[in-house]
Amino acid sequence: MAELVFFSGTMDCGKSTLALQIDHNQRARGREGLIFTKLDRAGESVLSSRLGLETTAVEVGDDLDFWDAVVEQLTAGGRVDYLICDEAQFYTTRQVEQLARVVDEMGVEVTAFGITADFRTELFPGSRRLIELADRVEVLQVEALCWCGRRATHNARVVDGVMVVEGEQVVVGDTASARAGVVEYEVLCRRHHMRRMNSRAALAASPTPDTLPFDLDACPLPPRP
Ligand SMILES: Nc1ncnc2c1ncn2[C@@H]1O[C@H](COP(=O)(O)OP(=O)(O)O)[C@@H](O)[C@H]1O
Ligand SMILES: Cc1cn([C@H]2C[C@H](O)[C@@H](COP(=O)(O)O)O2)c(=O)[nH]c1=O
């Protein structure tokens, strides 16, 4: 029976890599599918992994209708066994509802991938609807790590080395950028996200440049805004 599955987690935990692997394995067995993405860092209509692999994909604009996209493919004589949907946090709630309908009424397997929450720890609309509707929500096996060694569970936005907690929900970016003024992201454990202690702040607070404060008491709480 077809399912709507949501692979969810922080940035940099291997979601796009898994999306490419699932597509590869399906194709290797003669199954045919459609690949979708939205606002991938590598550019329009590309699904890219930090491991260096990428593939072309359909760019999901706000007016794309998944039901219509599948019908169009079938009408043109194509087959659609599955959909791979990356960066699904950016999809609209209506689009996630269309995905559920594609599963239930067309029997097409839909696997979606996306970050759960934004830099303020608030759910993205697409992720919220996927959590509400998915048959299964899966956490990836590969652990992205906080600088302290704990499993990373949250995404921090960093500008010029400083963690920020205000701004637009959507700003495309990567987990490391050397360019000044450019938004970058760092994955953190909850403790360090709540303390607003990214790796740069931890380094500044450590007694020597080589020692990060693994002792939580050594991490000062930032002043309340
Ligand atoms: N040079 C590398 N060698 C081995 N693994 C790497 C390398 N660079 C990135 N990775 C792996 O790729 C993962 C990120 O994969 P990606 O699919 O781009 O993540 P996501 O889509 O979740 O943001 C990292 O967690 C790490 O395991
Ligand atoms: C936390 C957060 C992230 N984003 C953007 C940054 C990236 O372009 C994508 C996530 O991509 P990945 O393949 O999972 O690394 O989301 C954002 O726009 N807003 C945020 O708060």
Automatic annotation (TrEMBL):
InterPro entries: P-loop_NTPase (IPR027417), Thymidine_kinase (IPR001267). GO terms for molecular function: ATP binding; thymidine kinase activity. Substrate binds at residues 170-173, 185. It comes from the Bacteria. One of its GO terms (biological process) is DNA biosynthetic process. It catalyses: thymidine + ATP = dTMP + ADP + H(+). Its EC number is 2.7.1.21. The active site is at residue 87. Pfam families: TK (PF00265). One of its GO terms (cellular component) is cytosol. Keywords: ATP-binding, DNA synthesis, Kinase, Nucleotide-binding, Transferase. Gene3D superfamilies: 3.30.60.20, P-loop containing nucleotide triphosphate hydrolases. SUPFAM superfamilies: Glucocorticoid receptor-like (DNA-binding domain) (SSF57716), P-loop containing nucleoside triphosphate hydrolases (SSF52540). Belongs to the thymidine kinase family. This is Thymidine kinase.
